[in-house]
Structures are given as structure tokens and as C-alpha cells.
Amino acid sequence: MATKKLASWALALQFSNLTQPVTDMAVKSIYNWAGCAIGGYALPPAGIALEALSPLLPQHSGNCSILGSDALVDVQTAALVNGIASHVDDYDDTHADTPVHPSGPVASALLAMAELRSPVSGPDFITAFVAGVEAECKLGVAVYPEHYDIGWHITSTTGSIGAAVAVGKLLGLDLEQLQHAIGIASVQVIGMRDSFGTDTKPFHVGRAAQSGIQAAVLAQNGYGSMLEGLEGEYGWAHVVSTRQNVTKELSTLGSIWEITKNTFKPFPCDRIIHAAIDGWIQIHDQAVKKGLRIADIKNATARVNPIVLSLTDNHDPKTGLDAKFSVYHAGAVALIYGEATPAQFTDEVVKDSAVISLRDKVSVTAAKEVSEHEAFVAVEFANGTKLEIHVEHALGSVEKPLSAEQLKEKFLEQVSAQIGDKQAAAAFSAFSQIANMTDVGKIARKFKQHPRLYKELNSSP
Amino acid sequence: MATKKLASWALALQFSNLTQPVTDMAVKSIYNWAGCAIGGYALPPAGIALEALSPLLPQHSGNCSILGSDALVDVQTAALVNGIASHVDDYDDTHADTPVHPSGPVASALLAMAELRSPVSGPDFITAFVAGVEAECKLGVAVYPEHYDIGWHITSTTGSIGAAVAVGKLLGLDLEQLQHAIGIASVQVIGMRDSFGTDTKPFHVGRAAQSGIQAAVLAQNGYGSMLEGLEGEYGWAHVVSTRQNVTKELSTLGSIWEITKNTFKPFPCDRIIHAAIDGWIQIHDQAVKKGLRIADIKNATARVNPIVLSLTDNHDPKTGLDAKFSVYHAGAVALIYGEATPAQFTDEVVKDSAVISLRDKVSVTAAKEVSEHEAFVAVEFANGTKLEIHVEHALGSVEKPLSAEQLKEKFLEQVSAQIGDKQAAAAFSAFSQIANMTDVGKIARKFKQHPRLYKELNSSP
What are the boundaries of the signal sequence (chains A, B) (predicted)? Predict the structure, then answer.
């Protein structure tokens, strides 16, 4: 009954059922997603995808915005490209109990659909968003960590189902239709860990959004599937994981809100290295105060959870995307720049000789007793000075979340780089006030987006 | 090196490398696919998909044909809908060493792309088709049966990669681009066995075709992926199966041609019940000769391989699609009608009281020593007469293939029902002569397709 339970719960959900912490977190999640999407459009993958797929359509125009550009395209292309852009910087959000980045697949699908099926009110948009996020995260908990350990990218493998639930709710599917939509989405299992560090990682998110839209629209029009796509003997949960308790997890829908456990990344890279970065930035700041020169660093170390090396043991990253999965690159830029923003994860910085030199002095050891959000970092200088920091909870974790002010700063920094300060402020105002809108589909008209394509932003496309 | 090996082999493949048995089988595979697609358009799923997705595009027209209708759409929609139609009847082809139905994903992607990128010559089309089919089937062998036993629909899970290889070759990708295309396709694992008997089974095939096109076009435009998508630690082969030997299987590319092991279905249903159907039809014919009445059947039995009950132990099918996975329905219609064509797998026949009554008299036992293409069937009549048949190799198996004449008949029967006898003959002429065409993209203009939508063909959409 898991599929039916999810579908019936999602359809019954009303904006008035949402508690204040739920709606607050939903709004933050949505504007954090929008900031990532607008900022992420500056990187190659989103623009390449848009330019590649546009000629496949007979006449390429539509109602749906590509955030960060002024392109208007069809709903499926918009969902794909915004999904790619929102995840390319690895700067989005993370569910605390799993590595699911929940907003990307759901918001990318929903915004495009809200533009096509205007008017969709803010409360309806938020309610559908919450339904989709709960679906993704409950499914994530039901199969984590076994599913992730096999090699699946859990964000997109749960994301196509979350997007189908959200869009299905927005379109007003009936119960059986939504079960069919979940079934159609569930047979499209998108995303593997091997592609981390490449353009294909953010593709997972965009494709999950696209698949969710397609599944919901097909089901709305009478396309059939199995009614028990999640729990069937040869259905989603059994096929994608060696362990699952989908039925149990979905029984907590509406009583335990997964979205309240959403967290936001302070650094645009794999969240597993955030604790170490946090510590190394603190050491940078101490060194500056003490008049120590970064060039005089003899060695830098971190003691971290073993998963850090499993995911980011990359001594020689080749590109900015690759460097998002290199704990050594992260250490070098945190110590040199005293920050880790998108500017520290460009192809140029990856090739910078000072960064490469310091990267080679970073060493990392793993210890099971260190938690995933914890790090012990130390730096030794040529004069023998040793600075040490214990980060118990990484900045951005549930225990030490970004404040609303920090989230706003993060948004403005990303978005200003793409569309300028004034328009960034207008965009923040629009997305952070989404609950009050009567027509979310018009949100992109509240600010002007420059028609800069990725080719203008990147010398080598 | 598996991904690189596949990509470099596919790019180097020339029409002149293909032996006569390979090209002969390729042409048969293509026209058998086209017949299934044109005939299959009469069933609801293809038409529903077309009607559902058309309004998502700003201006719905294009260069690419929906076979069986006169609709022209964009390349991705055409690949999806033709893929659905070609598999909906479960009447297509099957690789003898795996349950892969190879033509659907590859031909559906290629024909749409050949129409968009006209002119593509017959030899180029066939060469790309063979490259895609070899990719699918080698990958299938490398993970079968473990991958299938988990619950994956091996046709589409290998199909998106096969389609990417075929389209990538057609578009002239370079080696790294084709490796990237394989990577992008490999992270989209489409199709689970739980959806057998529903509209979502043929959706798998269409979506695989669509994903292959998208992957190839993205890679052509510079979208990146991992270069070792198939063999990487967290890549396709390891993630989707508990056993794999992709590297070994791909080492036989060009020396062992999988396409020569392709077989064609004589009956539009799961191939695992073809041996039993073959036997029951023979009993029907004997009974007619002996003057025995089908209404006097006391019981009908079959002793078959255990996989038959694993896939088709469905005593009470509800729809025509569902009945394609019911050995009991198959027995009833084979005995009553003396044939098993699409006309025996309609929703109406499933609800026919004589069929239901005889279905309840069919019983099946499983025995490991009976091969997958073998069956011992028997029927007992009210007067005590017992007729027995041992089918050692089912009609349509490698050992007892359909003749060229039977394949032509199968094509004409399916296609005439949709576009009439005269146009069916023209369509057969076009597809069976595809090797001589200078522009395969114009093949659909060689015959006139009626603009009948599924709603006109089906009373209840």
C-alpha cells in the first residue's frame, strides 16, 4: 500500500496543514534553489544543454524560463536546464538524514509547470513542493545507505518520483492517476556516483525533473502503470536497494516532516568536506591575525570520517567540477583564500600553481569515530607554529545552520554575479515572498535576466 | 577500457564490414520493427503519449513521423511514441541469448534522427543500427540473468545505451564524445519488470530511445560525462547487476555478431509462452480434423520451464496487455481460435465468456529439465480423447525461425489492419528495401498513413 499511501497523502495535503517551520523551510529551500539555478547558469553544462537541445524542437520558444538567462522554452527543456543549473555548483541543499538534495528535481519541475499552467498560487506551489520533497526524502531514508553504497545518486533516483508527486498534485490528478504517475516515474532510475565531478552529475537532477513532469502528464492523460510501483516485488524499492522499508517510512508522512531537516550548503562542493573546510578557513583567519604567511605552510592535515575519502580522495582534480570532490583542493583554497565560494572552484583556480603546490601538502586520515559533519584539522608552518581546530558540527549542518541572513547573502552573491546587484535584489524579493504570490508562473518577470549565454561567460565552452 | 572499446569499435564499423547474414538480419529486424510500430499504434499507449505530450510543446510540428499515423513531430517525441508502439503488442524481436528485444530502442531513435538529419543513406542507417544492437546485446549477455532476476527490464536498461551508440555513430561523434554519450545514457536505467502487463512496459522502450538521442546530442555539443561509464566502480555494470563481465563480452565485438541470434515473435505476447502456444495451436488443428469440439475440452495442461510461471502465472488478466503475460489466456485463445495474433489479445477477447471459461481449465506445471523454448502440452476432451504434443523448439526460436515469407505475412497482417492492404504492401516494399535507399528519412513518404488516432480505434481510450 506504500504507493497508494504516498499518493493519497499528497493529494490530501493542504497549505493549512503545513506548520510554520515547514513553510519557512520550504520558502528558504525554494529561494536557495533559485539562487543556485541563476548562479549555476554561468557554468557550462546548463548552457550546453540548452544549445544542444534547442535545435531538436521545430520552433523553439515557449512559456517557461531558463533562470539566469532570458530564454523562454518548452516546459520539459526548462525543467531539465534549470535542474542542471541548480545542482552544477554543488551548492544547493541537503536533507540531514540522507545525502538527498531535495529541492532541485522538485522545484525545477514545479516552476516550469507553474509557468505553463499559470496561474498557480504561492500556497499551492509551496504545498506541492512540500509533497514532492517529503516523497523524495522518505524514499531516501527507506533505502539509505545501502542504495547509495551500491552507487546510485540518491538525489535523482528519488527525485523523479518526488517531481512526479509534486507536479501530479499541481495538475490535480486523481488518486489512481497519481499512483500511475509514481509508477511511470519509478521505472526511470537516474543517476550514478561514477559521474560525480562531471557535467553528468547535475544532468541527473534535470533529467529527474523532466521525468517527473512527463510521468505526471502521461498519467493525467490516461497512460497506465502498475498501482504499486514503489513496493511491488519487481518494483522500485526492491530493485534499487538491498534493504528497504518504504512502507514503514511512508507511514510517517505528515507526522515527521523531512523538510524541517533540510540544510543549506555554505560551500559549493560535496557537503562531506564542509567540516574540514570550515576548520581550515578558521585556521586561515588565525594565521592572518598572527601574521603567519600561507606560503610558509609545511603541511595541512585533517582527520575525518572514512566517507570523506570514499567520495573525495582526488589528489589531482582537472576541472572546477572535479575539484568539488577533492578534499585536497578544498583544503588549499580554504587556506589560501579564507573562503570557499564558486570563485574557488573554477577551472582556472584548479590550475593555479599556488593552489596546486598547497594541495600537495594536504593529507587526510580517516577515523570511524569522527562523525560525518566533524573534522580535526591542523596546519604546521615553516617556523614550527602549529594551529589546530576541532569542528564538531560543520557550518551548514542541522546543529549549525546558515542563518536567514547568511542564506540571503549566499543568494545575492551567486545571483549578482550573473544578473547584477539590482536584479539580484529583485529576484530575492520575489522568491522569498513566493507565499504571497497569486501567480508563481510570473515570478521570472519580477526581475530582468541578462541574455548572457554560457559562451560569453566561459572562454572554453 | 570497456566504454572506450565499445565506442571505438562502433565508430570504426563500416557497412562493408558487415557479412551477408548480418545485413540480412538487420533488414529483417528493421522491417519487423516497423510492422510492429505501425500495427502497435492502434493500441492506446502510443496515442495517449502523443496526445499527452503534444500540448507541452509550443508549436507542435516537426520533421519526424509517428508510424501508423500521419503526425509529424519533433525528434524526441517521435522516438518515444514509435518506441512505445513498436513494443506495445509484445510482438517484436528477441535476442536468443538474453530476453533483450533489440530493435525497439535503436530503430525508434535512429529513424527519428534520420528524418531530422536527412539525408542518411540505407547503408549508413543499417551500420548504425547494427552498432546499437551489438551494444545492447553484448551488455545484456554481460549482466544476464542476474540483472534480469533483480527485476530490471533488460531491453530498455541496455536500450538507452544502444540507442546512444547508434545515434552517436549516425551523427559522427568523435571517440571521446561517444564515450561521453555512453556515459550520459548509462546513468538512465529505465525499466522494471513490475510494469509488465501495463502501458509502462512499452514506455520503457520509447524512453530508452529518447534517452539515447538526448545523450548523443548532448555529447555532440560538448556535454561531458565520465569516460568509463560502463565499467567504472560506481558505473553501469556494477550498479545494475550482481554479476557482470562487460569487458570480456565487449572484446568479442565484430567477431561474434549478436544480431545473427535475433529472433522474431510469431505471437504477440511474452516469448516464454510461445512453445506452449505453438503446441496448443497444433492440438487445435488436430481437434478440428478429428471433429472434436473445443467446447468439449475437459482440461488443458502444459509442462514448461519454471521461468514461464515466474513471468506469466496470471489466472485473471484484466486487459489485453495484461493477457500477454498470462499463460492461461494464451492457452485458451490458442485452443479456441487456432491462432494467437493481436486480435486474440484485445480487451474484448480477455472478457469473452468462452475464453474465461476455457482459461479456468488450463493448468501449468514447471520442470527444470524442460528448456525455455520447449513445452509438453496436452488436452483432454469430454469423450476421453487425449491429444498430446511435445514442442522441442518453439516457432520463432533460433532452431525454428520464422521464414522470410512468414515475416512478410506478419508485417502485412499488422500493418494492413492500421493503414490498409495497399499501403501495407508499399510500406513493406520500402522497409525491406532500406539497404538501397539514399535517404532513409523519406521512407515514411513511400506509403500513405491514415490519420486515424487511437481514439477512433478504441472505444474506451
Answer: 1-21
* Containing structural domain, residue B248: 2-264
Flag if B52 and A116 touch (Cβ within 8 Å). no
Cβ separation of B191 and A187 shorter than 8 Å?
A: yes
- Domain final residue pick, B248, B264, B280: B264
The CATH number covering residue A375 comes to 3.30.1330.120
- Say whether pLDDT at A435 is over 60: yes
Report the number of distinct structural domains present in chain A.
Answer: 2
A199–B63: do the CB atoms touch at under 8 Å?
no
Residue B331 contacts residue B360 (beta carbons within 8 Å) = no
The average confidence (pLDDT) of chain B is 93
pLDDT for position A270: 92
Statement to judge: residues B140 and B7 lie in one domain: yes
What is d(CA B71, CA B68) in angstroms, rounded to the nearest whole number?
9
> pLDDT category, A379, cuts 50, 70, 90?
very high
| The model's pTM | 0.94
Q: Which of B79, B144, B149 is nearest to B111 (CA)?
A: B79
Which residue among B193, B224, B239 sits closest to A200, beta carbon to beta carbon?
B224
B401–chain A nearest CA distance, Å: 31
Q: Examine the domain organization and report whether A275 and A231 are in the same domain.
A: no
Residue-wise pLDDT tens digits, B376-431: 999 999 999 999 999 999 999 999 999 999 999 999 999 998 899 999 999 999 99
Q: Is B136 helix (H, G, I), strand (E, B) or coil?
A: helix
Q: Is residue A418, in this structure, part of any structural domain at all?
A: no
B55 phi, psi to nearest 5 deg: -70, -10
pLDDT confidence bin for B52, thresholds 50/70/90: confident
The secondary structure of residue A265, as a DSSP letter, is -
Identify the residue whose cell numbers are 558487415: B18
* pLDDT number for residue A330: 97
Residue identified by cell 535576466 is: A449
Residues B12 and B153 in one domain: yes
Across B446-451, average pLDDT: 76
Same domain, A123 and A182: yes
The DSSP-derived string for B64-92 is: EE-TTS--EE-HHHHHHHHHHHHHHTS-S
